[in-house]
Every structure is written in structure tokens, then in C-alpha cells.
Amino acid sequence: MERIKSIKQLQDLEATLAAARKSDRPVVTVCGGIGCTANGCQKLVAEFKKLISEKNLGDKVELLVTGCLGFCEMGPVVVVYPQKTFYKKVQVADAADILDSAISGKAVERLLYTDAEGKKIEKEDDIPFYKNQKRELTGILGVIDPESIESYLAAGGYQALAKVLSGMKPEDVINDIIKSGLRGRGGGGFPTGKKWESCRKAADKLGASKRYVICNADEGDPGAFMDEAVLQGNPHTVIEGMLIGAFAIGSDEGIVYVRNEYPLAIKSLSAALAQAREAGLLGKNILGTDFSFDIRINRGGGAFVCGESSALIASIEGFVGEPRAKHIHMAESGLNDKPTVLNNVETWANVPLIIKNGVAAFTAIGTGDVTENPWNGSKGTKIFSLAGKVNNTGLVEVPMGATLRDIIFGVGGGIKNGKKFKAVQTGGPSGGCIPEKYLDMPVDFDELSKVGSMMGSGGMVVLDEDSCMVDFAKYFVEFLCEESCGKCTTCREGLARLKEILTRITEGKGRADDLELIEAVCETLSQGSLCALGGSAANPVLSTLRHFREEYEAHIFQKKCPGKVCKKLIKFSINDNCTGCTVCAKNCPQNCISGARKEKHVIDSAKCIKCGVCKEVCKFGAVTVE
Amino acid sequence: MTEAKVNNAPMVEFIVDGKKCSAPRESSLLDFLLANGYDIPYLCHNPAVKPYGACRLCLVEVKNGRKTKLTTSCNYPILEGIEVFTNTEKVRRNRKMVMELLLARAPESKELRQMAKDRFGIDADKLPFEKNNGNKCILCGLCVRVCRELVGIEALSFAGRGEHKEAISPFHDVASTCIGCGACAVACPTNCIGLDQVITKRSLARWNRELPMKTCKRCGYAYAPMFQLEHFQNISSVPADFFDLCPDCRK
Description:
Chain A is an alpha/beta fold. Chain A has five domains: 7-142, Glutaredoxin, CATH 3.40.30.10; 157-373, 3-Layer(aba) Sandwich (Rossmann fold); 380-464, Ubiquitin-like (UB roll) (Roll); 469-558, NADH-ubiquinone oxidoreductase 51kDa subunit, iron-sulphur binding domain (de novo design (two linked rop proteins)), CATH 1.20.1440; 571-625, Alpha-Beta Plaits (2-Layer Sandwich), CATH 3.30.70.20. A five-stranded mixed sheet of chain A has the order 14-13-17-15-16. The longest helix of chain A is centred in the C-terminal third of the chain and has 18 residues, at 489-506. Chain A is globular. Chain A starts with 6 loop residues before the first helix and ends with a strand. By secondary structure, chain B is of the alpha+beta class. Chain B has two domains: 11-87, Ubiquitin-like (UB roll); 142-250, no CATH class. Chain B is 25% helix and 21% strand. Chain B has helices spanning 29-35, 89-105, 110-120, 142-151, 183-187, 226-235, 247-250, and strands at residues 11-16, 19-24, 59-64, 67-72, 83-85, 157-159, 166-168, 195-198, 201-204, 209-215, 222-225. In chain B, the strands form three sheets. Chain B has a five-stranded mixed sheet, covered by helices on one side. In chain B, strands 8-9-10-11 form a four-stranded antiparallel sheet. A two-stranded antiparallel ribbon of chain B has the order 6-7. In chain B, β1 (11-16) and β2 (19-24) form a beta hairpin. The longest helix of chain B has 17 residues, at 89-105. The model of chain B has no long low-confidence stretch (mean pLDDT 92). Classes of the chains: A alpha/beta, B alpha+beta. The interface between A and B is large, with 45 and 41 residues.
């Protein structure tokens, strides 16, 4: 698009572009997020395009591929405007019907969402998954075209920047962010405004003219993808947030550190950066003012530890991604020893929202009272990646202070297959496990740490009654053991030894004093490590030990796995329900089930590998696990 | 990002184990403690290179403001008003655990076993952990760091992550840029570089490096590795024949 030359011109653009883009045609939006992409939405888009051109429907219907709509469980997802009709699990063969119905205005019944009672729901906003969310950041993902700056501008994009550049002083901006109570969404929860303030002050005091703003899009938690979703679906909001941050601290150079495993996000962001430069929103003398700023992308190799700020900086500088001690703050000495502000994608995305809608609108959502001190609460919304044994997996955005029950049962639709809830892990691989008794606890930065977990990456893994908490702790210790950078003894060796102890417990070889030993190793690991990875790595172990100690004891003393997961401690057998249908025997990969037709079968324990196939295929509940 | 830079820093006052002390602002707490007779165990620290904080043995408790935290003293910059506790029960307990973890990693190291026995009363053969036999390296990184920071060669690096991390020559191949100065071997606290010299040849087993020695034109003594002398020649302005003689014959 043409270069925008002044603030006034930018302010006028919103209305002109919105008017120009307004059309009477129905819009078929296809979710282009990673979940739906994995489910084949690209083929669906191709089919829509083909049909529109073949049937010459170009002036009757509009096609829009958006960012992530969040409801990954139901992907590929299609939403048709203006009715906002929600279609789930749409296949290529459904495309023609959806186009017809978009034009006729009558919904395609068979593709509608069905709720728990079997009732069909037509509109997106009426579906419990969406109804129970507060989609301040993610709502826009469904209506804008990630590849078009005009689309973002028409939706009010860059108006926060216009507001900042038309008379706000850097201090005013910082003050607004402090007053909003915005805290770092990367998990640390440090007040963003305070970070900016200390950077600006330190840099002014040092007389440092070079200052950096960095966006942390490393998102190392394998289960979290909210940063990917925002970066891919609405890259301009991150750019706008960084522009405002750069203005506030007086920086002219920004870097987005994004993991290389996010090709869709990188593609989307690269295109957005080029568009923003062309429009004069990045580069020298932005909108004719003295403010100059540009952003480049730095692709990370995908090490979990590189999401840690000092390791991230080392990686950008070209060194091995190892953390360093942070007794001297990054605000003073960060990238290339220059004052640096580093915030997470979601944090940056909140900035334009606060500036544009005002501090009051932001503080109206969330917990605590931050008027005096941003540490006294958690404001705004938080996006979580809901996964595990929950009905509605996907990306959910809720107000800070929503309870775990709201999220898991209200939005998430409860536990899969009618099973019982056991625990939820929040905060990614190094987050802790929270048991049922805390389900009504409000979720914010401070409450989560009180029960031994953390906000962390915003990952949320739900566990049902069939999970073993020792096995669970072992799984994450193994992950962290691989992902520890290996620099400091406590993290590298501590995790390796924890893995060793947990492995022997799950194999029925646990020793009487193992729990004490675990606690001792965890103290040194969590308090004696160099960085936050080591500091939080004990969480999965300590929290499960705190809330499910009896399970550990059952493994060690009774040599039993209450969750019936640990293979060395369980035994499969066939009970009297067996009708002799032979299905289990036919499916057993070890051929270790014997018995004549119509007679009770027997499992040869010596040969059984405990794969559980017999139990899965048996229709009579005749396979028991002890 | 560098660790604290101490150039003409103002003196600050702080407390160590109840005693008032003063030192330049942001200087290394461990250096101060060692210089003042405090008995702090450490393995990865060497004043010739920047603090690194890898071995975690030099743990102390520091109270800064309202918070008291366990921290390594080597990379802790001394700040006004901090209160340091070098010998609390918590400090001793955690240092001992660090030592046990190190021993489980490198049980073959004589130096480590001796230190564990003398300073912590730990019998290396009675650890609560499985042992990683056949290993002497504790990944303190001194070899890599002296080569990079002091010698300026960077012949070595780390590879891998977590338990699989190693200090190696490039691709486990010959460290072809190594000048054979031996600084890594001198700095190594567990003696696992394997520096050896047989008359006119020096070898560093860990880096698969063998280097010819320069013999003195006058006395015939093989006094230094040729590559090291070439390196010195390149970075200094001594005459071309300067290294023909050994330091003794040069006098």
C-alpha cells in the first residue's frame, strides 16, 4: 500500500478502509491456524477457491483465510458471516454445501456443533467453548486477514500508535502501561511498565543511545501455541506493540526471536514487516515524526532454554544458548551489553489494546487492585493452550481470575469419555500439577504459584483418573533433562538423578528413603540453579509429591501403580465376563492370549507386553488390569 | 552482556557472617571471600577468566532487601547493604548435594574424590546415586573459557545439551587450531585433558592434537610448541628470529 505520510492520514484510514472493505457479500472464513492446517484446511481452501471460480461466485461470496480460531478439537473450522455460523470438522466434500448455504443464508445442519445434550448450535457465540471465553486478543483473529495490512487497519489497527505519536510523551506511555497492571505473559509476570521504566531510566543514566526491544516468540513449551497463533494470525498487533514499546524506551531497533519450527508465523510476520515498512509504519521518520524504528527476525534453533531471556540474548549474539546470571538487569545491560526490553508475544499484543481502549478498560478485567502497585493483581486476559484429557482442546482466552473449573469445565467442556478429573498441569513442562481441591481457585500469577505451579507458558494439560502422577513427573523430568542447557551442575546432574530415581520408582525398585532423596535433590535444583529453567524444573516433581504423595508411596512400598500406567507394576488378566469371542487373541501383537472359541481366554503374563490392546478391543469388559 | 565490570567502582559496605566489610561495587563476591580468608569450595572459578557459575559449589546465602536467596558467590556482584551468610546449615546442605551430584557425574576424578572426602566427608563409593563411570570431566568449562578469553584461540567449544553436553574439539576431530599452549590442562580442576610431552612432541589427548616442539638453536631443548610460538609471533612485534632460542639461552 501507499506510504502513510502523517498521523492524521493514518487516523482517517480506519474509516476509509473499513468503508471500502465493507461488502454485502457473505464471508466464508476458514481457520488457517496450525491445528486446522494439520487437519487439512489447505485442501479445503483450495476447494473453496476452485468452486468460487468454477461457479463464478466471486461477486456473491467472499473467502477469507484467517489465523487460529482456537477450537482445534473441531478443526478444520469454517465460520460464515454475517450470521457467524460455525461449522466443525469440515471436509473438502462439504465445501460446495457451505458455499450454497452462505448464499442462501440457511445453515448446513450436519456440520453444526452439537452440545453435550445433543442440541445443534448454529452461531459461534452460542457455543459454550466460545461463550465462556473473553476474546480480547484472539477475537480479532477470526475476522482479519493475516496477510493484509489493510485488513488490520480497517479493524482499527495502528490507531494506538497514532495516539502515542500524536502528543504522548514516552513517560506517559510507560505510566499507562504501569497503571494498567500488565504483567509479562511469558510466565514470569513481571510488570511490563516497570520493566520499560527501569530500562528507560537506566539507559538515560548511562547515556546509552542504543537500546533494543525484543519480542520473545521462542515458545518452547511443546504444548503451547498461543504465541504462534497471535504471531501468525495478527502479526501487525505485535509490530504495533513493539513500536509503542520502542517509542517508550527510546529504541530504534527491534528483534523478534522466533523458533524456526514456526514457518507459518515466520512467513506471516515477514510479510507484515514488509507491508509495514512500505506503509511507512516502520523505518525512518515514521508518519513524518522524528521517531524511527525497524524490526528484524531472528530465527531460533528450537532449544527450550532459549526462551529464557539471557539464553535468548546469547543466542541472538551468536553464542551457545546458555543462560547467564542476571544480577545485573537486562534493562541496564542486555543484548550487546545495551539496555534491552524483552517481552513475550502476548505481552506485546496487549500493549496496543491498553493504549487504544484506555487503562480503565484493561483494569476492568482481572484480579486485584493495581492502582498503587502493578504487583497487586493480574489484569487483562490470558490465553491458554488447553490440552490433554479434556473435551474441547484448543486455544482459549479467559479473564485473569477465571477459575480452573471455568476453564476446564466451562470452556473445555469437561473430561473426555466421562472420566473423572484428576489434576491439571499449568505452565508447561516445568509447571506444577494442581489437584481437584483447587479447581475453584482463580487463575492468576500469584494464586498459581501459591499451590506450587505457575502461569509459565500458558500451557494447560488436563489429566484424568487413568493417569499416574509418578509417571507424569518422570515424563516431564525426562523432557527437562534433555532440554537443560547443561551448563550448571544442579540442573544438569540434578535432573539426571531425578530421572534415575523416578525411573526406579515406576519400575517397582523404589527405595524407602527415595522420597527424602527426591526432596533433597529438588531443593538444590530449584534453589541452587543458575536460571529459571533449573529453578522451576522441580515443579512437576514437588507438586505431584505434595498433592499425590500416597501414589509415590504405593509405588515404593506396595509396588503398585494406582493409575495402572506403570508397566512393570501392572498385570493384565481376563475375568469371567469373557465370552470367548476371540477378538482379543486376534489383536494381541504378542500372540499371548489363548483359549478356545466360546470359552474363557487366558493371558500369558510372561509374554504380555502390557500394550493394552486386549482391553481396548474387548466389548465385554472382560480384561482387567491390576 | 557481560558480568559486572569493575573499573574504578566506588567502594560499598556490606556484611559477611555478621562482620562489616567493604569492597568495590559489583566486584566478585567469591574473590572477596577468598581474599579475606573465607573457606569457600569452588571448581569452575578462575580469576583469569570471567565468572561463569557452572559448578555451583561456591553457594552462599545473600540477603538483598527483604529476600534471602541461595546464590553462587563467583558471579554475584557485591552491592551496597547486602548481607552474606557463608556457612549456614542450608548452605552446607546444598553444597554437599552439589558435591554428590558432581561425584555421580565424574566418579573417576581423583581430585574430586579427594575434595569430597576432605571438605564434605563424602565417601565417593557410597553415593545415593548411580555413577556415571568412566568420566572425569565436570563441565566446569574452564578449558573452553581460557582458550577463548585468555589465549584468544577458541579451539574448543561445548556441544550438546543437558547430560549430553561435552567440552570437545570441533566434531570430536583434531582441534586443528589448538596451539598446544596447555592453558586448558593447567586450568582443568579434574585433570582430564591428557597433556603429555615426549621430547619433541606435545599431545593433548582430549583434543586429539599432537604438535611438534620447537628446539632451541643453541641448547637443543624442545622448549615450546611451534604453533604457540607462531601465534605469539603473530600477535607481537618481536623480531623474526626471536623464538629461535629458548628463554634461558635468550638471557
